[in-house]
Amino acid sequence: MPGMTFNAERVLRWLIDQPGQRASTLPDEVVPPPFAETVYGELQLADLVHDTLTTLDGQFDFILTTRGHVEANRMRKSYRSSLAQRRVLEWLADHPETSPEALVKSESAADFTGPLSDREVSLAVEELESGGYLEGTKAWGGSMIRARLTAAGQRLLRNQMSIDQVQLSGGMTTMNISADNYGTQQIGNQAIGGQGHSMTAHIGSEVSVEDILAALRQFRNYVEDADLPAEEKQDLLEEIGAIESRGPRRGLDWVRAQLNALSTAVASTLGAESAELLVRMISES
Fold it and tell me: What CATH number does the domain containing 109 carry?
């Protein structure tokens, strides 16, 4: 199933606790009235709520389908992770160069499912950092200070999705880098959602940051020549530039995390084939 927006996640999570899993209106704290119709359309197209729209007055109810009931039940646990990620992204967009853990004491740390805990926020920060969506300085004890969103994090915020939902979206690609017991580095590239592209590239244990940066310089030329809207092209070039400038100092583990976010951004803007090209350039560098 394609990924859904955070507002759609909120509605599903709220509906599962309502009598009969249905409602004619949504509380403002779930989704403000101006966005209710958009969310209804998103859920109805995904077969998560029944088609109740009337042609005469344009009214509609939110009534879960069988599929919607299953997905909403799943949201009982996953929604809290999405909420924490979303709140961290929003906090850093409004409070750059601060500690994301500070949001726990703010009003935005709570919704109809209850307040976010320190642990939930810390896990969200770890996930966002490992995915290349934020960066900052680690303080004594492991908390992050002077945190800020990367270009990928800004895009994730604009997409109005959690990390899990972005990876479920049609056309999105995830790029996971891991090492086996023999020291071989592997980049696994799997297109999600009907694209039909799959690729695995192996990089020997001698891989270095310099090898990856050399490949990125070639890929930069590819992006510069691509037919993209100026803002999207600039975002990609900024992500590449950030890896090029900080990679030598941050090291291989940091570069891997940034490549994960970059590959997702490339797939969402240029397509899965371009993300595969990036993998090939790195594996052959």
Answer: 1.10.10.10
- Model's pTM, two decimal places? 0.64
- DSSP characters over 80-134: HHHHHHHHHHHHHHHSTTB-GGGGGGSGGGEETTEEPPHHHHHHHHHHHHHTTSE
Helix (H) or strand (E) holding 200: strand 198-203
Say whether 95 sits in a helix, a strand or coil.
Answer: coil
Residue 24's CATH number: 1.10.10
Distance, in Å, from the CA atom of 237 to the CA atom of 241, rounded to the nearest integer, reads 6
pLDDT digit string, tens, across residues 152-204: 888 888 888 888 777 665 333 334 433 333 233 333 333 333 333 433 444 44
| pLDDT tens per residue, range 33-74 | 889 999 999 999 889 999 998 867 778 999 999 999 999 998
* Token pair recorded at residue 101: 């853990």
Lookup result for tokens 């090898």: 211
Tokens linked to 30: 């779930």
Report angle CA 130, 136, 142 to the nearest 5 degrees: 75
For residue 238, give the 3-state DSSP assignment.
helix
CA-nearest of 105, 89, 99 to 142 is 99
Nearest partner of 86 among 119, 132, 35, 120, judged by Cα? 120
